[in-house]
Design a protein that fits this description.
The structure holds two protein chains of two kinds. Chain A is α+β, with helices and mostly antiparallel strands. Chain A is built from 18 helices and twelve strands. Chain A is elongated and about 105 Å long. By secondary structure, chain B is of the alpha/beta class. Helix content of chain B is 33%, strand content 28%. Chain B has seven helices and ten strands. Chain B is globular, with a radius of gyration of 17 Å. Classes of the chains: A alpha+beta, B alpha/beta. At the A-B interface, α1, α12 and α18 of A face α2 and α3 of B. Bound molecules: adenosine-5'-triphosphate and magnesium ion (MG). Magnesium ion binds next to α1 of chain B.
């Protein structure tokens, strides 16, 4: 071990003790790292839950038709023949006009095949009453919760649906009537994006609304557990005719939304990184004090033959060791807190007598957590890097000291 | 003198203080042979410490040449070539006496078993075998200076420079330290340059010099 590393250790932990100055410096980094890990993990957890919700309502893969698929049976057979595909179900999806209680809305109408939709999407988990989707007939619809609220409809009410097809009829001076549907259920997935305005109806009803005949807009695909969906997407795109269809993973379909989600996380990361940066300033100031306090010893090191570069390394090493120790403890504390996060949240809620509020207003009654290795690595590297940077100024000051003047100082 | 451990010629040094220029050294010549002991006396402020720092290569002279063991003095040779003892002991407070002695060896290379054994031996030689694991704060002034002497000798230097090593010690302790320095240097054939105010100590060295008006006599 070079002397400067040895001395760096000894100055931070003289004879195995953990002195106050070291403890404070380490604590700052620890806090920063722990908070970074907790927040990125919880945000990652939200992202992970959202992924689960998307996948559970739409499957992992969306085979979109350019225009429409006039013969979905063939394509369905081709899709299900691919190993790794668990199930597939056709859909029709487009915007409609809706009116109820005199209030208009323009939601997306999704026509799904009632017999197969559940093998791809576990929607019945999210409907009220449960299983409303499975019992859907051609005159019934399931309405997403926010839409139901804004239209002021409940289960059993009627809504009127206008499709773009009716506009065509209107142009030809034909008489038209809106199609009437009965609300048989509400859909509450628990995510704003998914709950805002969707109507689920049968495939046949949707085909009639659009005058599609037997054609569909696309096919949702469920991948077998443990199979990478991107591989299946590539296989699908290789197998299916390029002119009529294109397969997208859920990530591609939701790219914009995921981008925003990721942006939120990045912004959070950089804001919280400031805790580490502030901790680094405290590391810097205590090392600067140490340089001043040890001026004579630094002079002595020079007299013993230490090169200025090695003196600098001695202080950089101290900053690095503080960063490393703080980060290591911070990772431990972070994961420790994550492990008991739900006890903490519930404990606080109980203290404030707000258990029900929590359940009502949060999408998840438990706090999710999902730590990405990339986030963990980024946190660790950033924390150690920033702490080590903090050693540069003290190191430079120490290296600049001339032995003779340092020894002379009182 | 050829083969001299230390050869300094025409060493000059001046300091700027305010608008005045103080010429402290005006051409000092000094040659010290292997194993020789030299004492330098002089009034306070005559430039003894300045000279010693120049000889140690810790400070750059304004003029003159300096050779260690017949070759030009260079900072990277210092750790292996010479040892220094200061008036203040400058021990590193975080590490024990033995580790302080070993520190000199670390500057040259990572210490092995041989270096550890030598450090123990030196600590014993300066009479601190019992105190080897004490931190500097747990040692008396005299004991600390003895650790500093052991540290200066750690790398088996050819030359030992001592700047008033007894300055911070009482008479009795000072006597012991000087005896130790002289004895060890004699034993190990290390050349010694001893700066001191004390005539009695100076008398014990092989050659006695005075620093006066910026030159040795
Ligand atoms: N860095 C400096 N800047 C300005 N003047 C200096 C500096 N270092 C030393 N001097 C001056 O040089 C002169 C010699 O100083 P030095 O320390 O060498 O004396 P000394 O002989 O060792 O004295 P003492 O016996 O008191 O230790 C003094 O007048 C001192 O004020
Ligand atoms: Mg002096």
């Amino acid at each position: 071990m070079p002397w400067y590393i040895y001395l760096a250790f000894k100055q931070l932990f003289p004879s195995g003790r953990f002195p106050f100055f070291t403890a404070i410096s380490v604590l700052g980094v620890t806090l920063g790292v722990a908070v970074l890990i907790i927040v990125t993990s919880v945000m990652g957890g939200f992202g992970y839950e959202i992924r689960r919700m998307i996948v559970e309502t739409e499957g992992e893969i969306d085979v979109k038709a350019t225009g429409y698929l006039s013969d979905p049976k063939d394509v369905l057979a081709q899709i299900t023949a691919i190993p790794g595909v668990a199930a597939a179900t056709p859909y029709v999806k487009s915007v409609v006009g809706v009116q109820a209680n005199g209030r208009p809305a323009y939601p997306i109408f999704r026509g799904v095949e009632v017999s197969t939709i559940e093998s791809v999407a576990n929607l019945s988990r999210f409907t009220n009453p449960r299983g409303a989707l499975a019992n859907l007939d051609d005159d019934g619809v399931v309405v997403s919760s926010q839409l139901a609220t804004s239209l002021g409809v409940r289960v059993g009410d009627k809504i009127e649906v206008y499709s773009p097809l009716l506009i065509e009829k209107l142009k030809n001076d034909e008489v038209f009537f809106p199609r009437e549907f009965r609300v048989v259920g509400e859909l509450y997935i628990g995510h704003q994006q998914l709950d805002s305005s969707t109507i689920y109806g049968t495939l046949r009803a949707a085909q009639e609304l659009y005058g599609l005949g037997r054609s569909v807009h696309g096919i949702y695909v469920r991948v077998k557990p443990g199979i990478d969906e991107h591989g299946v997407v590539a296989q699908l795109n290789a197998t299916l005719p390029r002119a009529t269809t294109r397969a997208y993973s859920w990530m591609e379909s939701w790219a914009d939304f995921l981008w925003v989600l990721n942006l939120e996380k990045s912004i959070n990361f950089f804001l919280l990184l400031f805790i580490v940066i502030i901790a680094a300033f405290s590391v810097m100031s205590s090392l600067l004090i140490s340089v001043v306090r040890k001026t004579r010893e630094i002079g002595l090191l020079g007299a013993l033959g230490a090169r200025p570069r090695d003196v600098a390394l001695c202080f950089c090493a101290q900053a690095f060791i503080i960063g490393l120790t703080g980060t290591a403890i911070g990772v431990g504390v972070g994961f420790g807190v994550l492990a008991i996060r739900n006890d903490l949240v519930h404990g606080i809620a109980r203290l404030m007598q707000r258990q029900d509020t929590l359940r009502q207003f949060y999408q998840f009654s438990d706090l999710p957590s999902h730590t990405l290795t990339s986030d963990l690595v980024l946190t660790v590297v950033a924390a150690i890097f920033v702490s080590t940077l903090a050693g540069l100024l003290p190191a430079w000051r120490a290296a600049r000291l001339k032995p003779v003047e340092a020894l002379r100082s009182e | 003198m050829s083969g001299a451990v230390l050869a300094a010629q025409g060493m000059r040094k001046s300091y700027q203080s305010g608008d005045r220029r103080i010429e402290v050294l005006r051409g000092v010549d000094l040659a010290v042979g292997a194993g020789e002991s030299v004492s330098i006396r002089g009034e306070s402020g005559s430039g003894k410490s300045t000279l010693l720092n120049l000889l140690a290569g810790l400070d750059a002279p304004d003029g003159g040449t300096l050779a260690w063991g017949g070759e030009p003095a260079q900072a990277n040779r210092r750790a292996g070539f010479l040892g220094i003892v200061f008036q203040s002991f400058y021990l590193i407070p975080e590490i024990d006496a033995l580790a302080n002695v070993l520190m000199a060896a670390r500057m040259v290379k990572a210490p092995g078993a041989a270096e550890r054994a030598r450090a123990k031996e030196l600590i014993a030689r300066v009479g601190l075998a019992e105190r080897a694991t004490h931190l500097p704060a747990q040692l008396s002034g005299g004991e600390r200076q003895r650790v500093a002497v052991a540290r200066a000798l750690m790398n088996s230097p050819k030359l030992l420079l001592a700047d008033e090593p007894t300055g911070n010690l009482d008479e009795h302790t000072g006597d012991a330290v000087v005896e130790l320095l002289l004895g060890l240097c004699r034993e190990t054939q290390t050349a010694l340059v001893l700066v001191t105010h004390n005539t009695a100590y100076a008398a014990k060295t092989g050659r006695q010099l005075f620093l006066r008006d910026g030159a040795l006599s």
